[in-house]
């Protein structure tokens, strides 16, 4: 099993975001199983032709999202991402609902705002 990352220099997303998204997706789908040891920041940067700071930024975001975990000198590993992602999503949704209610939005207005945000991020209108 190897990490399969492709950075598109012409893409609209920054290289660190492309890297973050690809590792996150591979962890979520099980392509990279929990416990898989990721390359070092410097090693992956060299392999992909990126600056070490770019890889480090992606790793920091992935760690804060609960997708990966750093175990000191032992390295960086894929965490149980599915559970962490589901938990963080539920927390964010609860915070959104609480804030919308505080602001006086109706249930329907809150739902419409959430759906508009999802469309803006994911694009399109369908399922």
From TrEMBL:
SMART domains: HTH_GNTR (SM00345). Keywords: DNA-binding, Transcription, Transcription regulation. InterPro entries: Tscrpt_reg_HTH_GntR, WH-like_DNA-bd_sf, WH_DNA-bd_sf. Pfam families: GntR. CDD domains: WHTH_GntR (cd07377). Residues 13-81 form the HTH gntR-type domain. It comes from the Bacteria. The keyword Coiled coil does not apply. PANTHER family: HTH-TYPE TRANSCRIPTIONAL REPRESSOR YTRA. This is GntR family transcriptional regulator. It comes from Streptomyces xantholiticus.
């Amino acid at each position: 099993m190897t990490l399969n990352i492709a950075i598109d220099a012409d893409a609209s997303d920054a290289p660190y975001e492309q890297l973050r998204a690809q590792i996150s997706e591979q962890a979520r789908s099980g392509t990279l199983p929990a416990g898989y040891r990721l390359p070092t920041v410097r090693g992956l940067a060299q392999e992909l032709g990126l600056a070490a700071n770019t890889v480090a930024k992606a790793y920091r975001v992935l760690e804060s999202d609960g997708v990966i975990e750093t175990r000191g000198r032992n390295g960086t590993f894929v965490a149980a991402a599915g559970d962490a992602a589901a938990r963080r999503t539920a927390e964010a949704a609860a915070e959104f609902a609480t804030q919308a209610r505080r602001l006086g939005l109706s249930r329907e207005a809150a739902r419409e705002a959430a759906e508009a945000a999802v469309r803006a991020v994911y694009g399109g209108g369908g399922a």
